[in-house]
Each structure stands twice: as structure tokens, then as C-alpha cells.
Amino acid sequence: MKIFVLNCGSSSLKYQLINMDTDQVLAKGLCERIGIEGSNIAHEPDGKDKVKMESPMKDHTDAVKLVLDSLLHADYGVIKSIDEIGAVGHRVVHGGEKFSKSAIITAEVKKAIEDCCALAPLHNPANIIGIEACEKIMPNVKQVAVFDTAFHQTMDKDAYLYAIPYEYYEKHAIRRYGFHGTSHLYVSDRAAKMVGKPIDKLKMVTCHLGNGASICAVENGKSVDTSMGLTPLEGLAMGTRSGDMDPAIIKFLMDKEGLSIADVDNVLNKKSGVLGVSGVSSDFRDIMGEAEKGNDRAKSALALYARRVAKYVGAYAAAMNGIDVVVFTAGLGENSGDMRKSVCEYLGWLGVSINADANSKRGEEIEITTADSKVKVLVIPTNEELVIARDTLALVK
Fold first, then answer.
1. Which of 216, 346, 365, 392 has its CA 20 to 30 A from that of 66?
2. What value does the mean pLDDT take over residues 117-141?
3. 97 vs 366, more confident
């Protein structure tokens, strides 16, 4: 069966078409600037040249139509009929407490996703738009929602509750949810296979380090704690997000800078993180380049980032009363040996010993620790789309 995987943002749409008999990605691509002048698509069919073109897309329905046209195109298409698509798998960011696993999309499921929009106002509305666009164009094809939050629903109450009046949890479901669940699920499963041990016998910390970043404590194959919270703002410093900080800073900034609560929210989500500290960029490649030139703020941003990652790894080793494996994944985790080295330099107390030659590799599935290291450190390129496709296949079958 061929599964069409969609990840819809407010003005973007990422996609893959995967042949589930072989796990082969037949085509992948990205539509950008949907509803904005200059909208375009970058389409990459397997074994053929990448195609990039501008094309008007007033909404996500237009974008889905354009993607399907590209998949069916005589020159750069990969299927002959839309009937070859067996199901559609949608990444949905927030499922609240209602979903501990993926679900076939029904009217009731859509309503539940809509109910979570207040918890993910930048993401869930776009996810719903993508679902409804596919319903219009492919009304007879089954669709599945795969939730970023689902993997973390195994956390105990002492891990997900905040120390605020309990009534706010009861009335508004304010609690830790966590995100990047499909990534943490994929790499923890791969890690168990790489070390040759059953996943239900392992304690590991998975580090999804990209522009958005989160860390997860995975014990016996289940998420027991994670760094992101009610929203993706909590936890690590990220590209533009502040991560953990004293909440009193919010009122302090409002008073001192004359900012509204919306202004402060914008600062913490879009102007903070390594961008705010470095003053250079939210892209770690740019920051590393400036650090090499002697830029002190760029150096501080990188040092701050590595320290916070290491602190979470240490905290989760304590929470699980031990640790067997650390995994690095996502753009920064997969490609930056320097950042991995900086983090692991804090972990000597755990018995971590890095193999410099292995750590110099980029984007490979590899162990980067020496044979005598007490904790194994792995690099595993994540594959969230494959997780979505597998969940979709299992449900529609």
C-alpha cells in the first residue's frame, strides 16, 4: 500500500508518498507561502530530478491539488492514478489527553482536534485545514491523525502536573504534554535495535535537537518525562524559543518595556533562544560560523545550549535511577559533532567516553562512544514520516 503523509503548517505543507511494502519514499516535497504571493512547490521524485516551480495556492486545498498533480505528472510523477494512494496520514501536533495513540479521522476526532486548538493555536488549526482539504479532494480515502503528544501520554501524574492550583488542571487541562513524540518513538526503537537489547529492558534519553528541540526520558520503551510542556515553549533553549526561565520575567518585561502579554509571548516564542542570545541567527550553522570568528555572544549561545541539554540528560538519568543510552537526533543532533562533543563533555560522571572519529560523522546512524564507555551514545537520523505512515497503515488495515 502507498501512504500519503502530510504535515501542514499555517502557510506550508510538507509531504511524502511512501510505498509501505518496501518503506521506499517515492516522492517528497514542500509547498510554501500558501495564501501568500509567490507560493511555490519543491517536488523531489525518487530517481528523478528535483522540480521547483511557483504556482498560485490560495489555500491548502489548492496545495494538495498541486501536490497530487505533481505525483501524477507524466514527467516527474511517481503514480499513474490517485487510486494508488491507500490512505493519508496527518501529523497533528496536539491531541491533549484525549489521544494516547493515533486515530482514524471521523467527525468526532476532528472535533477533538479542534478542542485542542487553544493548546496549540499555531499548529492544530493548520492541521485541521490539511485534513479538510484532503476530505474534499479524496473523499473515499481513509485518513489517520498521528499526534505529536500521544507518545508522552504514558507519563505519570508526578511528571506531567504543574505545581499550580489543581483546579486549573481540572478546569483547563493545564499540564505537561510534550511534543516530537513520533521522533522520540522512532529513535528509541532504533536505539534498542542498534544496541541489541529489548527496548523494555533499557533506560535512555533521546535528544531531538533542531530549531525546535526537546528531550525525552524513555524507560522500558515508554515516555516517562519530557522537556516540552503545555506548549512547545518550555524546556531547552531553541532557535527562537526561550525555553525554561523564571515566569516572573513576564511581568517584569511588561512593566519595564511597556509590553502587552501578546508582545511578551511573541518575544519568548520568536525572538529568544539562541537568536536572542547570539544576536546573529536562529540557525546554528550561522552561529557556529560567527563563534569561530570570535563573536562572544555567539559563543555564549552555543555554550548555554549545550549546558541545558546536558542538565536535562542528567536530570532524566536521576529520574530513571540510571541510564543505558543517549540518542542525538534531528538537524543539529544528527549533523553537529561539535555540539554533541560539548554536551557529552558534561557527562563524564555517567562514564560517557566519546570516539572522536565516529563523532565526526554527519547524518549517519552510528555509535559515537568508545568500547569502554559505560553509557552508549548514538546518532540516529529521525524519520517521523515513516512513523506516521506505519501507524496509518496499521489502522486502515
1. 392
2. 86
3. 366
Q: How far apart are CA 29 and CA 52, in angstroms?
A: 9
Instruction: Please give the pLDDT value at position 8.
Output: 85
Q: What average pLDDT does range 226-249 have in this prediction?
A: 95
CA distance 52 to 96: 37
pLDDT tens digits, residue range 176-203?
A: 999 999 999 999 999 999 999 999 999 9
| β-strands 103-104, 142-147 pairing | antiparallel
Task: Classify residue 35 as left (phi > 0), alpha (psi -120 to 50) or beta.
Answer: left
Residues belonging to the active site? 148
pLDDT tens for 257-304 read 999 999 999 999 999 999 999 999 988 999 999 999 999 999 999 999
Residue 319 φ/ψ region, left for φ over 0, alpha for ψ in the -120 to 50 degree band, beta for the rest: alpha
Phi then psi for residue 46, to 5 deg, are -60, 130
Read off the amino acid at residue 134. Answer: C
User: Which of 382, 223, 237 lies closest to 309, judged by CA?
Assistant: 237
Rounded to 5 degrees, what angle do the CA atoms 239, 184, 24 make? Answer: 100
Mean residue pLDDT across the chain: 94
> For 212-283, where are the alpha helices, taking DSSP H only?
248-257, 261-270, 273-278
Interval 315-332 mean pLDDT: 96
Q: pLDDT band for position 393 (50/70/90)?
A: very high
Give the mean pLDDT of 240-264: 96
| Beta carbons within 10 angstroms of residue 80's beta carbon | 10
Strands (E), the chain: 2-8, 13-19, 24-32, 40-45, 51-54, 85-92, 103-104, 142-147, 203-209, 213-219, 222-226, 325-329, 366-367, 376-379
Same domain membership, residue 212 and residue 97: no
Say yes or no: 243 and 95 in one domain.
no
Cα separation, 367 vs 355, in Å, equals 9
* 385: its cell numbers: 514520516
**What pLDDT, on a 0 to 100 scale, did the predictor assign at position 201?**
96
Coil, strand or helix at 395: helix
Examine residue 184 and state whether it is found in any structural domain, yes or no. no
Taking alpha carbons only, the member of 216, 190, 186, 214 closest to residue 204 is 216
Query: How far is it, in rounded angstroms, from Cα 34 to Cα 29?
Result: 14
For residue 247, tell me if it sits in a domain.
yes
Query: Is position 112 within any domain?
Result: yes
Which three cell numbers mark 352? 560517557
Domain that holds residue 109: 2-147
Same domain, 96 and 211: no
Q: H or E element: which one contains 148?
A: none
